[in-house]
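Our consortium's second objective concerns turning raw sequence data into structural hypotheses that experimental partners can test. To show how far this objective has progressed, the report includes one record in full. It was chosen at random from the queue rather than selected for favorable results. The single chain below, 211 residues long, was entered without modification.
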Amino acid sequence: MSDIKPDIITKYFPDLTAKQLEQFSQLFELYSYWNAQINVISRKDIEELYERHVLHSLGIAMVCKFKAGESVLDVGTGGGFPGIPLAILFPDTQFHLVDSIGKKIKVVKEVASALGLQNLQADHLRAEQIKGKFNFIVSRAVTRLGEFYPWIQGKFKKESINAIPNGILYLKGGDLAEEIKESKLKAELYPLSAYFEEDFFETKYVVYVPQ
């Protein structure tokens, strides 16, 4: 099983440290093991873990390079996407991963523990229950933007230290024009096909909503 290597990650992120490379390399075996017990990734997708889940999560890093000392909330993280790949890539940024389904958070905690991620906290909570404030809030297609926004409204720090202002970085696919219009949010679309050449990314976007 461990012969599936994260080559697609090093293709786009060639400057990983030895530790980061080791952590990314461990993901396939860890998710194969946990997925067999608690289904967090569709069975047919597990072989495509690095492209469809890990690299997809890292699409956010193409839009925003998180800085040391920033805090990021991942809402509806499921099995840990996009939070776990981002926490590996940005070890000096604090990540808080939440999901309303407890068994999914169990997987996140087990994977993060096995990887030795010191910059990640995971909790079985709904977004509305979170008390802290964050520089960025990330998520991967948990619901329509208009429904998502009220969950996290008011949870942003006032001070921005990044190249882009604090805000939402939302991974979403398909034709998003109607959804963005319906949400009444000022959103910017970043097509992942501009960064990744694989067919999977042709209709995938990072939706950025500055605060």
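The partners drew two points from this record. The beta strands are 71-75, 94-99, 120-124, 136-140, 167-173, 188-191, 204-210. The helical segments are 7-12, 18-37, 49-63, 83-89, 102-115, 145-152, 177-183. Both points have been shared with the crystallography group to help prioritize constructs.
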